[in-house]
Amino acid sequence: MTFIRQSRVRPGPARRDRAGSAAGGDEMTEQRVRSGTRRRLAVWSAAAFTALATAVAGFPGQAHADGPSCSLAVEKGVEWRGGFNIPLRVVNTGTVPLNGWRVTWTFTGDQKLHAITSSRWSQTGRQVTAGNAFWNGNLAPGAQTGQLAANGSSSVPFGPLLDLTCTPL
């Protein structure tokens, strides 16, 4: 609901236009009041709309869900003829503690895992899934796991990990 305040128009002094003829002060003052009222109404309407939109959608730049989230940090690994070791860490990037996590990625070549320390893991083709062990699933906001080491074999030089995801549980 919008309330419009009505104002009284008072006659103003006669004004002269560029040609020198007198213009009615009443018309000019009334027009200024109307345009000023319209301007104020537009500003108030825009402010009300912005406040309503912000209340519904949240502040700009604010995460819509202040819940659990995580990421997988991949550190520079070691590679040797026929094998590799990749240090990994799961980081709680959310605002609440994690009660567990699962990470997935895709290898770019023929890499085969032998182990991922401190996790339960599986590999199907190039797709790898790893979940927390019973002792490292609980992470406070901003905390990270100890190093998880992915060890395996490969006949080609190691490439980047693709489709990295971390899912809080």
Automatic annotation (TrEMBL):
UniProt keywords, alphabetically: Membrane, Transmembrane, Transmembrane helix
InterPro entries given in the database record: CBD2, CBM2/CBM3_carb-bd_dom_sf, CBM2_carb-bd_dom_sf
Keyword Transmembrane carried by entry: yes
Pfam families, per database record: CBM_2
Transmembrane intervals: 41-61
MF GO annotations: hydrolase activity, hydrolyzing O-glycosyl compounds; polysaccharide binding
Top-level taxon of the source organism: Bacteria
Region of interest called Disordered, as start-end residue ranges on this chain: 1-35
PROSITE patterns assigned to the protein according to its UniProt record, in alphabetical order: CBM2 (PS51173)
GO biological process, one term: carbohydrate metabolic process
Domain CBM2 span(s) in chain numbering: 63-169
UniProt cross-references to Gene3D superfamilies, sorted A to Z: 2.60.40.290
Protein name per the record: CBM2 domain-containing protein
Native species: Planomonospora parontospora
